[in-house]
Amino acid sequence: MTASNYTPSPVLGEVIVDQLIRLRVRDAVISPGSRNAPLTMALWRAASRGEIRLHTRIDERSAAFLALGIAKATGLPAPVICTSGSAAANFYPALLEAHHGGYPLVAITADRPARLWESGANQTTTQVGMFAGAGVKSLNLAANGSEIGEVTRWREAIANEITLVRPAHINVEFDEPLVGSLDWVENIDQEVAIPSSPKVHVKKLAKYHQKGVIIVGHDAGGVEYESILKFSQATGWPILSENPLMGADLIPHASLILADGERRKTLCPEIVMTIGRLTLSRAINAFVNSGAYQVAVDPRIAVVDTKRSADEIHFALPELAGQVTPDPTWRHHFEEFAHRISKKLPALLTQWSESSAIRTVTHKIPNESTLFVSSSRPIRDIEAFSVNRLGVEVLANRGLAGIDGNISTAMGIALCRGRTYAIVGDLAFLHDVNGLLLGGDEQRPNLTVIVISNDGGGIFSTLPQSDAPGFEKIFGTPHGRDIVKISEAYGINAISVRTLDALTSQLARGTNGIRVIVCEMPDRQSNAQLLKRITESLALL
Fold it and tell me: How far is CA 379 from its chain centroid?
């Protein structure tokens, strides 16, 4: 091989992309740059051959959350690629969410060769280990054409780094020239063994009592609902969930039932099994703590939440140690309270409000839909006010429950689903408005974004600091922006609604491309007062 066609950087880019495809990667997200050219050009070639779908976003933070949405929807590794320097740092929030949620987001950061590190070279900073705070180790790759077995080493390193249950970081040193021949002294098309995922050991439940309760966090820790339902039927333990759209056999309105201290005492269990993390309701957490014996089920306890405590810790849903005899009357107590609340709620939610709008959305969207829910108030209103139903898949960023990257995450999910909806607050919308910035040739999925717009951070009006001095400046943060006009500036069709009938009519139009429905709400304080009145009224049941 002559020196004229000896260009290891393009070869390294080609090998990385080919190995990603062998690891079942089917979508990749790129942000434009020069140093990552060997990767982006290899991805373009793979996309041209129909081996991968390629998505481009100019904002690296939005790009990373888009890839996170893809990983959530597919369960497959989703790479996001950027150039060197500050571009890489913008991946951090999405990697944090992926780490705490347990999703295979793969950050691939282009870098300058090591001889230029700490030399003052342009767009050069310490990238190896930069995501350690997110629990993500760095694999550093560099081309060295003098070594035999280089391609095999690259492939094996990538295969060992990427799994289906956690994020990864691959930092790649690309030396000049970045563009050139793909000739190489070795065969690029080598096969390497792909490590198998470790099997989770299923243990037996050490203790059983008839008065047990199953409480499921929003993402259920990855445990399938069908398995939870079978366990519930075998034990006689009712299921309460932060996501009432998980199934029709749940006890609805869990946070409203347990908001009353007297009801918590009446329903006090001997055993509480939590599946996943509980992140929404102080009342539910108080109920969990009232249980005499606690069982935690979540595979993330092994690697992320290692200090989580309970009387029993399980990384998978446990098996029963033997035959048990459920108490048929135990579940009835929960069903009776749920029935009383379900009967009274409609009369409390006849007026236009955040709660009634969200209840309408979750009731009216069609079966076979996917719903993404942003953090803060929307996800809590779904937990409290939505009616149990089947046919809707619900996803959310509950790893760290931030409002960043929500539109981009929903966009990534929609790219892998048919009919997709997202409910976000106005601050979450504005925080990730660049998630709407698509190039002219980018795929536009069927995504309807419903914005609960109350001109600021509505959740703070429901918290103890609601009467703090300077509240509007430091908590309420009104923005005074027209979200319809902002959406239209990004080339997205948008409309505002102010009644339940108007919202229902817009939802009935279905999804064709990207749409934004802005639910213009009364002031935040009146919504907080409504929530208080509802809670007080239901406490009398």
Answer: 12
Give the homologous superfamily in CATH for domain 3-173: Thiamin diphosphate (ThDP)-binding fold, Pyr/PP domains (3.40.50.970)
The fraction of the chain above a pLDDT of 90, given in percent, is: 77
Name the pLDDT band for 201 (thresholds 50, 70, 90): confident
Selection from 354, 335, 372, 338 nearest residue 218 by Cα: 372
The pLDDT score that the predictor gives to residue 148 is 55
Instruction: Give the count of beta carbons closer than 10 Å to the beta carbon of residue 41.
Output: 16
Q: What is the DSSP string of 409-473?
A: HHHHHHHTSSEEEEEEEHHHHHHTGGGG---TTS----EEEEEEE-SS-GGGGGSGGGG-TTHII
pLDDT tens profile 86-104:
999 999 999 999 999 999 9
Domain 349-538 architecture: 3-Layer(aba) Sandwich (3.40)
- So what's the pLDDT on residue 190? 72
Q: Which CATH class, in words, describes the domain spanning 212-333? A: alpha beta
Longest CA pairwise span in the chain (Å): 86
Residue 147: pLDDT over 90? no
Contact 71, 118 (CB under 8 A): no
Token representation of residue 422: 């997202």
- Within the chain, all domains assigned CATH 3.40.50.970 are found at 3-173, 349-538
- Check the CA dihedral 321-325-328-329 and report its sign: negative
pTM of the complete model beyond 0.70: yes
